[in-house]
UniProtKB/TrEMBL annotation:
It is found in: Cell envelope. This is Amino acid ABC transporter substrate-binding protein. GO terms for molecular function: ligand-gated monoatomic ion channel activity. Pfam families: SBP_bac_3. Keywords: Signal. Residues 64-284 form the Ionotropic glutamate receptor C-terminal domain. The keyword Ubl conjugation does not apply. Residues 62-285 form the Solute-binding protein family 3/N-terminal domain. It comes from Alkalispirochaeta sphaeroplastigenens.
Length: 291
């Protein structure tokens, strides 16, 4: 085909005109979209037009807290009412937010999925801050620190006085499934047999019945069990063999609620209120007659 000397300039002018038309159309369309619509805030907050979780709680007038029973974090008293360190913490948080409190008891193994599906607003349940969990939820700054302790059966573990004594294929370690206690048992005693239960009371019953050499749980539960059952249990080591920070677990993507609970923890810690409540529930048994 023969190309004339003027055909190339004509094609160039047509291409420029088409480009200008496309640019004008895109500019017009973008001008019709409100700023931020359909986009996550660059600061991590909810999309424009959506209220934050903090605002939703205030509008609802109720803070919904996911929790599970752990002695003395959260327990049922003789009247079937919830008591414990975490219960005090959640009630004080709701009071300072100016809202009512609603506790949502949940099996520990499914408590993070329940948070992610919106069954409650946050988890206040002695949850250790762990990187694997942090992939799914946001954590507040620590409001407490816990650690794992071990109680042993008097007959099955007679003569055991070091952690290494329990790291044996003939030894059975019990704990609550899905907890940092179970993680610590697997990590500290990899050679032992691990028998985990979804309910902590079943793990306690396992060692009391002589079907496990040792119970691993957050302090001070093992020590409390030894006090209550001195004829069957003993403490092979004193204190804890791990230390872990404890935080509130929150849904991702909302900076307002995270900022609020972090500030709240800072304030009540500075007041000495957290230390006072922790001492009552973890260092005394003054509450035992309520059970």
């Amino acid at each position: 085909m023969t190309t004339t000397k003027n055909s190339r300039p004509r094609r160039g002018r047509a291409l420029l005109a088409l480009t200008a038309l496309i640019a004008l159309t895109l500019t017009t369309l973008l001008a019709c979209v409100p700023a931020g619509e359909g986009q996550e805030s660059s600061r991590g907050g909810p999309a424009t037009g959506q209220i934050s979780l903090l605002e939703a709680i205030q509008e609802r007038g109720v803070l919904r807290v996911g929790m599970s029973t752990f002695v003395p974090w959260a327990m049922r008293d003789a009247r079937d009412e919830l008591i414990g360190f975490e219960i005090d913490v959640a009630r004080r948080l709701a009071e300072d937010m100016g809202v009512e409190i609603e506790f949502v008891p949940t099996q520990w193994s499914g408590i993070i999925p329940a948070l992610l599906t919106g069954r409650f607003d946050m988890i206040i349940g002695g949850m250790g801050i762990r990187p694997a969990r942090n992939l799914s939820v946001n954590f507040s700054i620590p409001y407490d620190h816990s650690g794992m302790a071990i109680a042993a059966h008097q007959e099955l573990a007679a003569g055991f006085d070091t952690l290494e004594d329990f790291n044996d294929p003939q030894v059975v370690i019990t704990a609550r499934i899905g907890t940092t206690a179970a993680d610590a048992a697997e990590r500290t005693f990899p050679k032992a047999q691990h028998r985990f239960f979804d309910d902590e009371s079943r793990a306690v019953q396992e060692i009391l019945n002589g079907r496990a050499h040792a119970l691993v749980a957050s302090a001070p539960l093992p020590a409390f069990q030894v006090v209550e059952n001195p004829d069957r249990l003993f403490l092979p080591i004193q204190g804890t063999f791990t230390r872990e920070p404890i935080g509130f677990a929150l849904p991702k993507g909302d900076v307002d609620i995270l900022n609020f609970v972090n500030s709240w923890i800072t304030v009540v810690e500075a007041e000495g209120w957290l230390a006072e409540r922790k001492a009552y529930w973890f260092e005394t048994r003054d509450w035992a007659d309520q059970l």
